[in-house]
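Note to self: keep these together.
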Amino acid sequence: MEDHTATKICARPAPALRRYVGSYVGFDLRGFPAGVHCGPPGRVLTAVVSLSGPLEVAAGVDDGSPVTRFDSVAGGLMRRSVAIHHDGRQKGVQVSLTPLGARAVYGMPAAELAHRLVPFDVLLGALGAELVDRLRAATTWTARFAALDELLLRAVGRGADPLSQFRPEVAEAWRRLLAARGRVQVGRLAADLGWSRRYLTERFHGELGLSPKTFARVLRFEHAHELATRHDPLPWADVATVSGYADQAHLVRDWSEFTGRTPTAWRHGEVLLGTG
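Structure:
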């Protein structure tokens, strides 16, 4: 592999945004071999503004999904990885939104964006164009994060209170699934909330775009993915055990479903591993 450099700067949003926005990440990756990066599914809705060339993204990996070019892109919750085609260099800013943040920032439930990729600036309307211009004109990561705070606070301030539209039972189910990294029995969770499993599934899916069971699987995979991308990754059998899989074969099945690749093929193909 040729010499490469990787910059990754993480920041927390302004306190008033933290119910809606989980994090900002600035990244500048250079000198890597060209390839296809699997952007894994997880607990957040992700938006990216490119600070270099257009992003070439498909909604699935190695499954024939069409590749679309975006200057900025946003997606909902996913049940499979997106394919990010790159030439070995990427520079941009990533924003992670909570499901409540979809209502606050975009003015719509997260379910309307599930399994979709759309231009970030289009979702934000006039504020979107201003945000992209501000991010590209800024010369430091601090200035870019400040611009995100300012523009996203304006986006939140122009709509109705998102909490009034988000059922508290759904919010509680979401919090408990997150806290347990998906290791929760959905039937027990529904009973604790005073709902039937079917009713919880309908309401949860209507707000987030995934069923509680599927979201739990995504969270378990997310945990496994975190363990597998550490600088000192665990053996696959240990990854399976720590993240709650019945055995390594169970992990392999889910990994293949969520990334389109076996764990071994994924690790060999991910040239951007170790960049953060």
